[in-house]
Amino acid sequence: MQDASLLVVIMLAWAGYGALHSWLAGLGLKERVGRRWPALLPAYRLLFNGLAVVLLIPPLWLTWAWPGEALWRWPAWVAWPAALVTVAGFLWSLRWYDGMDFIGLRQWRSRGAPSAWHDSLVLSPLHRYVRHPWYSLGLLFLWTRDLNAGWLVATLAVTVYLVIGSRLEENKLIEAFGESYRRYRDRVPALLPLPWRYLSRTEAETLLTLARRHDADQ
Asked: Distance (Å, rounded) from C-alpha 136 to C-alpha 129?
């Protein structure tokens, strides 16, 4: 198989993963599962996260197995600080998340009391500068690694997916948090921080109060 064909296979594998991941994350599928198998609904996020990891194996394997031509190497003074910023930013931001919620264990454990669990808007310090800080950190890591042809195709595919996926995710966030998230979206960029667009701490607290009021009205 020629190199170009291999790169096409890698691109299709990542595109397929992104499309399947978005479909599984969609509210439409979740609602259909809830109607047909209501007992599975509390486990939906847990199963979704498990599938996301398992389904990631084929495109990752293809990218490792067919690396293609080496394209460029970043100097150590770029690659290592970027990697450290990525890891440190991710670990620091975890302080503002409930790991049980993120994994889906809390939803599963509260299955006997549906009202005991609900989504809440999270605005960590990083969220004051970009709406999707984990995506931004992921892109920083991907684009500061040494790239061969296979990983370049994979990185481009993941970048496109994160741009599109963040838009789809925000449709759900607007439905969940209403005007508070619309205001947030108007003030803060999605993935790339801009010096003139950010929230002060007071503004973030105001939006969180508005989100809680919206949640109480539901």
From this structure: 10
